C-alpha cells in the first residue's frame, strides 16, 4: 500500500479523511470477511473498506471522521465478532 501515500498527498481534500486499522476477533474464514463487509462497508461515510481475516482497514470520506460507535455496532451485527484493538495511526 506504499503507493497510496503519494496519492493521498496529491489530494488535499483527503487530508480530512480518516483511516484506521481495526483488529477484529472471531474471524476465521472468508465467510466472516463477507459477513463483515456486508455490514461495515455499507456504513455512511465509509470511503474505503478493506477487510481481511482479523483485520479491517477503513477510510472515511473527506471531511468525515470515522464513526467508531457505528463501526463497532456493525461488526457486532455481522455475527460473533468484536473489535479488539485499534492500531495507532501511522
Ligand atoms: Cu468464517
Overview of this structure, please?
The chain has 90 residues and is an alpha+beta fold. It has one domain: Alpha-Beta Plaits, CATH 3.30.70.100. 32% of the residues lie in helices and 28% in strands. It has three helices and four strands; from the N terminus they run αβαββαβ. It has helices at residues 4-10, 30-40, 68-78, and strands at residues 19-25, 46-52, 55-60, 82-86. A four-stranded antiparallel β-sheet has the order 2-3-1-4, covered by helices on one side. Helix 2 crosses helix 3 (68-78). The two termini are 13 Å apart. The mean pLDDT is 88. The structure holds copper (II) ion. Copper (II) ion is lined by residues 28-29, 31-32. Residues 28-29, 31-32 line the site of copper (II) ion.
| CATH topology tier name | Alpha-Beta Plaits
Helix content: 25-40%
- E-strand count: 4
Mean pLDDT: 88
Global outline: globular
Which molecules other than protein and nucleic acid are bound? copper (II) ion
Number of helices: 3
Strand content: 25-35%
The main β sheet shows up as: 4 strands, antiparallel
CATH class: Alpha Beta
Order of neighbouring strands in the sheet with most strands: 2-3-1-4
Which consecutive residue ranges, at least 5 long each, have pLDDT under 50? none
SS content category: alpha+beta
Indicate the radius of gyration in whole angstroms.
13 Å
